[in-house]
Amino acid sequence: MTFTQPAGTITEHETGAGAAIAQMIRQLVIDTANNAPRSRQRRIGPSEVGNPCSRALAYKASDWPEVPGADRDPWASIQGTAVHAWMAELFEKRDPKGERYLVEKRVTVRQGYTYDSTIAGSADLYDRATGTVYDWKITGVTSLRKYRSQGPGDQYRIQANLYGLGMENAGEKPERVAIVFLPRHHVLEPYVWVDDYRRDVAEQAIARLDAIRELVLKLDPEKNPERWAMFPTDPKARCVFCPWHKPGSTDLSQGCPGITKTS
After folding, report:
1. What's the burial of 246, exposed, middle or buried (CB within 10 Å: 0-12/13-18/19+)?
2. What is the pLDDT, as a whole number, of residue 9?
3. Statement: the pTM of the whole predicted model exceeds 0.70
4. Residue 75 backbone class (left: φ over 0; alpha: ψ -120 to 50; beta: rest)
5. Residue-level pLDDT at 259
6. Buried-state track 29-51, b at ≥16 Cβ within 10 A, e below 16
7. DSSP codes, the chain
8. What are the sequence ranges of the domains in the chain?
9. What is the mean pLDDT of each run of 10 residues along the chain (263 residues)?
10. Can you give the pLDDT at residue 16?
11. CA 57 to centroid of chain Cα atoms
12. Distance (Å, rounded) from C-alpha 65 to C-alpha 73?
């Protein structure tokens, strides 16, 4: 028997009951993801400290309202959460007593004087036998090629070393950090970037964040909205994922238009 594709175009298949169900599922996923604990976190975490965009960090440090109505697709993040959970289960089964592997270990990178100034998070994996801090990253084909040829950017490197500092604060002896890039496509060919644990990288990133916090207090952009412009954006920033990104915005108190073009 020969299979024959049913008549009709893709557009026709995306109408009617099927399209309504697809939209319902999509909206349910988005609503659930947007109300997940990580999405509602107001304190700056290790993954954000190294954000190259000072303006985004200033918005977050100020607990500034995000751009309303932005329909950001959370699917990549959901996949990442699922893979993290699977990897956690894998290592927990290999070491049920937690003698060698610390899985999703909650660490304090810096204990601040206030809740907002404290930096804490969960390290994906720590191997006591080798003193290695692991961080899982789920990535697409294009990004994976870039990481293979250029290595990870500063934000990922900073995050790895911040978790290293957190492990050190917890009484462990980290020696290396490893970022494991797992491909989002169907072929399992990961790339692993490894470096010595560098406490100075973590401390410099924390000092930068503190400087941004101090500048927010000094400039008080809440009362002086024009002063948001004094917090620079950065060409390396991924504006499309920023919750304060508002293309075309001329009022930075309402949202940021994105990377500032320089001549």
Report:
1. buried
2. 39
3. yes
4. alpha
5. 86
6. ebeebeeeeeeeeebbbbbbbbb
7. ----PPSS-HHHHTSHHHHHHHHHHHHHHHHHHHTSTTTT--SPPHHHHT-S-HHHHHHHHTTPPPPTT-----HHHHHHHHHHHHHHHHHHHH-TT-SSEEEEEEEEEE--SSTTT-EEEEEEEEETTTTEEEEEEEE-HHHHHHHHHH---HHHHHHHHHHHHHHHHTT----EEEEEEEESSSS---EEEEEE--HHHHHHHHHHHHHHHHHHHHH-TTT-GGGGGGS---TT--GGG-TTB-TT-S-TTT-B--SPP--
8. 41-263
9. 41 72 88 68 89 97 86 82 96 97 98 88 98 97 95 97 98 98 91 98 98 97 96 92 93 92 43
10. 84
11. 13
12. 19
Q: Rounded CA gap, 16 and 19, in Å?
A: 6
- For 105, what's the count of Cα atoms within 13 Å in the CB-facing half-sphere? 28
What does the alpha-carbon distance between residue 75 and residue 96 come to, in Å, rounded to a whole number? 31
Q: Which of these CATH numbers, 3.40.50.720, 3.40.50.620, 3.90.320.10, 3.40.250.10, describes 41-263?
A: 3.90.320.10
Place of tokens 């930096």: 119
- pLDDT score recorded for residue 110: 97
Residue type, 38: R
Residues in CB range of 37: below 8 A, 6 or more apart: none
